[in-house]
Amino acid sequence: MTSADQPRFPGDAGPDPSATGSPLGLRPLRSNDLHAVVRLQRRVYVARYHEPEAAYADRLADFGPGCLAMFDGSELVAYAIGYPWAARRSLPLDAGRLVVDAAAAATLYVHDVAVDPAHRGRGLATTLVLALATLAEVASLVTASLVAVQGAEGYWRRLGFHPTDVDLGPGYGDEATFMEADLTALRTACRRATTTGDSGTGDNGGNSSGVSPAG
After folding, report:
1. What are phi and psi of 90, to 5 degrees?
2. 37-66, pLDDT tens digit by residue?
3. What count of other Cβ atoms lies within 10 Å of the Cβ of residue 162?
4. Which of 123, 132, 133, 185 minimizes the C-alpha distance to 155?
5. pLDDT at site 101
6. What sections of the chain are H helices per DSSP?
7. How far is CA 206 from the centre of its chain?
8. Is the pLDDT score of 173 beyond 70?
9. Distance CA 25, CA 2 (A)
10. What is the pLDDT of residues 56-92, one digit of tens each?
């Protein structure tokens, strides 16, 4: 989507880290973070889901408030990318800049979630998803959607996602599953998981242009 077409989340500065209860620094991604994003992507995704740095620059330009990262000091240890999108429509793996009719944007599309293997089991993926869902709910979106890959379906089921019959197109592979969730239910599940510590340790969290083992 282009900046002229996209629905806007309030607060371009991104989510308030204190609202998620995160023990690490949480802020929107910046252009000078993208080298680190690509390095992390290549550590956690199989090659078929690798995207170039230019693709992340496109997502940042498409919808900056939905590009979030977590840091341990100055080290990027997790990131998530999401944006308003048309319901029940997957994103091609080779997509460039996105264009969507703002009136048709009814879902938060969780494009990418990745957590450094050394930091799994700390609930970082769930914290990031909660931050995206909170932004999306304020923007009056009603669902969240994604493509679960690399064994991630179980993680997303625990957050309220369910498989939906949508044509994914070429590139995703037979193991990929399009999934949807009610946005309010997703927020509730994320808050419960971050409160109880049940964040899906050991499972993969994931979505469209690839997925990382989350924790």
Report:
1. -80, 165
2. 999 999 999 988 999 999 999 999 988 999
3. 12
4. 123
5. 57
6. 34-44, 53-62, 124-138, 153-158, 183-196
7. 8
8. yes
9. 29
10. 999 999 889 999 999 998 899 999 999 998 888 887 7
Helix 34-44 crosses helix 53-62 at what angle (to 10 degrees)?
Answer: 120
DSSP at 79: E
**Residue 125 near residue 178, CB atoms below 8 Å:** no
Q: Which residues contact 21 (CB under 8 A, 6 or more apart)?
A: 127, 194, 195
- The arrangement of strands across the sheet holding 75-86 comes to 25-28, 67-72, 75-86, 105-115, 143-148, 177-182, 162-163
Distance CA 207, CA 99 (A): 20
Residue 110, strand partner residues: 82
- Listed residue (109, 122, 19, 28) closest to 70, CA to CA: 28
The pTM score is: 0.81
55 is written with which tokens? 């693709």
CB contact at 8 A, 90 and 147 = yes
Q: What gap in Å lies between CA 132 and CA 83, rounded to an integer? A: 8
What tokens appear for 120 in the block?
A: 């799994």
